[in-house]
Design goal:
By secondary structure, this protein is an alpha+beta fold. The chain has 2 domains: 77 residues, no CATH class; 55 residues, no CATH class. The chain contains 5 helices and 5 strands. The strands form 2 sheets. The protein has a 3-stranded antiparallel β-sheet. A hairpin with a 3-residue loop joins strand 4 and strand 5. The relative contact order is 0.17.
Length: 133
């Protein structure tokens, strides 16, 4: 499983667009450090969104304006891992609205640029995450 801080976005902001960005006490986030819209459930808060649905902290030119202090969700989400899922699982996630098609496409493009051993490692991480021991 990917540890917090291990995912490098390299300027990609697909998951910052029209997605709920969550802040969680359980993962060490301090809601007081973010513009919060609402509490989703106890201890989990939605970061405010811009009128178009993008994250409050996404600048169209500069990207993430809080990258160095972004929430745990943002530090740990790896679109390449989602894109390493079998095709039918990817389609279902998009159809159910659990992962945006743009995020899945970005992850797939990034996944396919990896070497075969790196792709295998990500698939292994997915399988490990999908079937915890």
């Amino acid at each position: 499983m990917v540890a917090f801080g291990d995912v490098v976005c390299n300027g990609c902001v697909a998951c910052c667009r029209r997605e709920n960005v969550l802040v969680s006490l359980q993962f060490g986030d301090d809601p007081g450090q973010f513009a919060i819209d609402r509490e989703v459930r106890p201890g989990v808060f939605a970061v405010a969104a811009q009128p178009n649905g993008d994250c409050h902290y996404l600048d169209p030119k500069a990207g993430c304006t809080i990258y160095e202090r972004r929430p745990a969700m943002c530090r740990s989400f790896d679109c390449r891992l989602e894109a390493s899922r079998p095709t039918e699982e990817r389609r279902e996630l998009v159809q159910r609205g659990l992962v945006a098609a743009d995020v899945m496409r970005a992850g797939r493009e990034r996944f396919l640029k990896l070497s075969p051993p790196a792709q295998a490692a990500l698939r292994h991480n997915y399988q490990k995450r999908a079937r915890p021991s």
